[in-house]
Design brief:
Blueprint: H1 2-21, H2 27-30, H3 33-38, H4 46-68, E1 93-96, E2 100-101, E3 109-111, E4 117-120, E5 132-133, E6 136-141, E7 147-151, E8 157-162
Antiparallel strand pairs: 1-6, 2-5, 3-4, 4-8, 6-7, 7-8
């Protein structure tokens, strides 16, 4: 019981200084008495505990900086020729063609809402006579090779290759 009162009084005395300085808080300040005991830290001498707190004080800014750094998004390389680099997510690509869409013909290029640029590479397939606004399109990997573009609501597909 005496330990709890001692720990609480130490925390209460140091709380204003910690709040204003926004500095490192020691293990004794951050842990409950039971957590401190469960970790076996009460067995440490005052010097050993001070050394452990000093080590944490020096290491925490590096840990905080690495935790704060945002993860780099994986570049979606689907549609480009295979390479040893990561190809990004698996499966179909679903996006929109922004603006007015009036079908496709061979060698026509489309910039998708996701920023990818694809080109129709199929002289036998055309989609004409449509007038859509921001249509949803799906790009699917072919069974053997290549990619195919389809527009939601239409059965036509065209072989495509990714440009950008």
């Amino acid at each position: 019981m005496r330990h709890i009162v001692f720990a609480l009084s130490g925390v209460l005395l140091l709380a204003p200084a910690i709040a204003t300085a926004q500095q490192f808080s020691s293990l004794e300040e951050r842990m409950t008495y039971n957590e401190f005991r469960a970790a076996g830290l009460e067995k440490l001498s005052a010097e050993e505990l001070a050394a452990l707190n000093a080590w944490l004080r020096a290491d925490l800014p590096q840990v905080a900086a690495s935790a704060a750094a945002p993860a780099q998004p994986i570049e979606d390389r689907r549609g480009f020729p295979l390479s040893s680099s990561d190809q990004g997510p698996e499966g179909d690509i679903t996006s929109r063609i922004p603006g007015e869409f009036r079908g496709w013909s061979n060698k026509q290029r489309f910039t998708l809402e996701n920023g990818q640029v694809w080109q129709i590479n199929d002289s036998t397939s055309t989609l004409a006579g449509v007038k859509l606004h921001d249509p949803v399109v799906t790009l699917s990997r072919g069974a053997i090779s290549g990619w195919f573009l389809s527009v939601e609501g239409y059965n036509a597909k065209a072989r495509v290759k990714r440009i950008k």
